[in-house]
What we know:
Elements: H1 10-19, E1 32-33, E2 37-43, E3 53-60, E4 66-73, E5 80-87, E6 93-99, E7 101-103, E8 106-108, E9 110-117, E10 123-131, E11 139-147, E12 153-158, E13 166-167, E14 171-174, E15 180-183, E16 186-187, E17 195-200, E18 206-212, E19 217-225, E20 231-238, E21 245-252, E22 258-262, E23 269-274, E24 280-286, E25 291-297, E26 303-310, E27 317-326, E28 329-339, E29 342-350, E30 356-362, E31 367-370, E32 374-375, E33 381-387, E34 393-399, E35 410-415, E36 419-423, E37 427-429, E38 432-436, E39 441-443, E40 449-452, E41 458-460, E42 465-468, E43 472-480, E44 483-492, E45 499-503, E46 507-511, E47 515-517, E48 520-524, E49 529-531, E50 537-540, E51 546-548, E52 553-556, E53 560-568, E54 571-580
Parallel strand pairs: 1-30, 36-44, 46-54
Antiparallel strand pairs: 2-34, 3-4, 4-5, 5-6, 7-8, 9-10, 10-11, 11-12, 13-16, 14-15, 15-17, 17-18, 19-20, 20-21, 21-22, 23-24, 24-25, 25-26, 27-28, 28-29, 29-30, 31-33, 32-33, 33-34, 35-38, 37-42, 38-39, 40-43, 41-42, 43-44, 45-48, 47-52, 48-49, 50-53, 51-52, 53-54
Amino acid sequence: MRKNLGKLMTMMLAFVVWGMGWPSTGSADAPAEDPRVEWSAEFRGSSGVYDYSAGEAVTATSDGNYVVVGRTYSKLTDGPIAYVLKLNPRGEVLWEREIAYSDSYGYMPNKLSEVIETSDGHILIGGDVRDGGNEWRPRNVPYIAKLTQDGDVLWQKAYLDMPFYFQSADVIAETKEGNYVITGITFRTSGEVPAYLLKINADGEELWSRTYKIGYMQNFDHVVVTPDNGVIVSGRKMYESEGPETPILLKVNSTGEIVWQKNQENDPIDAILAAADGSYVLTRHDPDTHSYYLQTLSGSGNLLETKKVGVLPGEGNRNIRRFQTYDQGYAFITELRTSYDRAKYQLVILNANGDAIKNFLFGSGGLNSVGKGIMTSDGGFLLTGRVVTKGSNMEVIKIASPGSPTEPVLTGIAFQPDRMELSVGQTASSVVNAVYSDTSVTDVTYSASFESADPSIALVDGTGKVTAVSPGRTIVTASYEGMRASLTVEVKEGTPGFGRFYLDSEEYSVSVGAELDAAAYFADEDGRILLVTEDTLFETADPAIATIDKDGNIRGISPGITWITATYHGHSFRASVWVVRPFSKVDA
Length: 588
């Protein structure tokens, strides 16, 4: 089993674990059910360098379409690059962009975690970018870009004056005056870690930035704009480096000064939104009972009302990715992490009293993470995430309105494309689409079964991944719900020569005592990708911090930073390994 979730930066691990809800074992008023999927699609990016992409956030646009953002890989940066797609309501790609950022050191890795449509009709995207000013200890700083509705970049900026090792633009809120307040993950390798806010104007120029030291380590997760151009911010803090987590709730004025701060409650704040009547609604959960409830606050932060939601179905760590009004009630778009590297989508519909009237729990076995989805204008939902059954791909999935009655009928399945040409030793993923009577198309590769007519020429596994064994031609057959489709596979001779050798990450993170696996790839001159882990030699610079075996399995030994070097037929690649202490909850 792949353990790629561990391949996140140290600060990502810390705050992602903080942001998750507590395990749920009971059931709310509405039982879990499957939604009706109108369509789903996977996107891999166009670079052809590395089979990796992920979806992080979605927004609707005023022209009736959708913009999805995340990350993919690029030849330019040897790392992640900002990935943006615009889709129509049927899931068809209107345009696709991979947006690189360059500084005086060349193109630097960047990735996206937020997208909004601005009041002037443009698209604002946010995330972080690597600052190449220090080769041995580069910083990650907030990255913002503004696009037209056609995907043209109007401007892009990196905010290099931020004070710490890592800050990311994960949350963007537009004020009434047309400026933007930004926050997100903050991290540095030692010492206290304040949260941050950054305010920019419509041209991306910094108006001010501030840090907020409320505990020892803190992070802002959600921002809502107030009528006076201030913001209400919620987040999390620890009073000690190893202490328990408690919530942050405060009001900041238009210049970044704290107006009020509430510290009376200990239950985590999962989400916050502005209500139409001028109040603010918080989602909170009780760590002891694992139940959720809603709190309505006044503009001065005073409690007006509490509504019980109850325990939601499904076991795992729950992370509410979007909270918004829905009909006369509310909707949660939630990531339910069922294991270390597996997740589920969950949609929970509440009535005005906070009762759960619909619970949808779904997702393929390869779903690794869930992004910030949205409710669509037709009462449905558009979700995005990352699936790893066929490489690592951005998934976008459209869910019909819970009241939508008609169920389409499956009319056939088809490989897309239906021919594949590989070199000996090369591995490639196939895609199987199901076609329905309403003309909708859904990727069902993870649900289909596969068979190769001649395994001595090409093998196929249970996820549709084809491996070329020897020269020749054979047929791979997919079966799904009684339907069959064929893929013609032609295998030619091929040996490594000129090309690019790389690992699946330039930066790994693993807890002490845990393991994760590195994968090695070779991209030849024709852009074909070979998985070459078995033929690669690995070594580590400091075995006292981390070890790596002949199969690429990295094991954390003690906290610290070291390097691994991979060698393949004269090609080499170097990556950093961060070993961190395992997270453990400390009760207050």
